[in-house]
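anyone seen this seq b4? input:
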Amino acid sequence: MKISTAQFYRSSTNQMVQAQSDVAQLQTKLGSGKQLNTPSDDPQKSNAIARLEGALERQSIYQKNIDAAQTRLSSEETVLTSMNQLMQRVSELTIQAASDTLGAEDRAILAIEVNSLKDELFNLVNSRDLNGNYLFSGNKIDAPAYIKNDRGEISYNGDYGRLTVNISDVREVSLNTLGTEVFSVEEFETLDSLVDSLVANDGNAIRRSIDSLNGVSDRLAQSYAAMAGRVSALESQREILEDTSLRIDKLLMGERDLDYASAVTELTKESVALQALQASFSKIAQLSLFNFMR
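predicted toks r here
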């Protein structure tokens, strides 16, 4: 039987090169902890991993958007809480002043406090968030919501735009309450009229203002409730995002991360096979026709 030495060497060399490549590839996977060293190892799996990584990154962006939204709404919550408390005080003073047992001097003192509360409400409706943006000016975040002219007359200075942020692929939430929803020009005028009535010691006018003040308080309560609803929506969406991220991460681990136990077992098997192939090749390569015949 005629044996081709060149063919034997080529076949053996190819087998050893392939075995060495398999071992090296497994060693690289163990070093990186990944199933794929390059996308070309498995294009279909690589595409699946890329899609999952993209989805996970989007969840992270949405969570950051929620963080930013909650920070801003927290500032709004603080302001609205303070404004509600101030209006409660105004209502208490008005009810107190409505009693005919109070004289002109007493009502004049209450007028000073009500006027001070009105100024504080004006300052609060022009509050800014932690980034220095005005809370209630709509899209005009660099301008105060309300301004006063030289005569002390108040006017709305913001616009009616809504600041929104995406919190999922299909959902967005509004970040702001408009200044006109918090406190209107007419409501500032109501407080001015109350001050005038207190100064004028007009009991009937003071009593008539009670209903108007209740309406102001009701609007503030509604604005607070709407803000609280947005906060609740953000919390609900955060839970959804966290759950989705966990599920995506689990899928990604299955597609991308290496099963170390299986990989070590496979490496051991391939290494033993390579060593056996190398030993066999070395012995056979040393045989000569004389040795074979002997």
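Strands lie at 146-148, 154-156, 164-166, 172-174. The helical segments are 5-32, 43-98, 104-125, 179-182, 185-199, 203-256, 260-286, 289-293. kinda curious what u guys think
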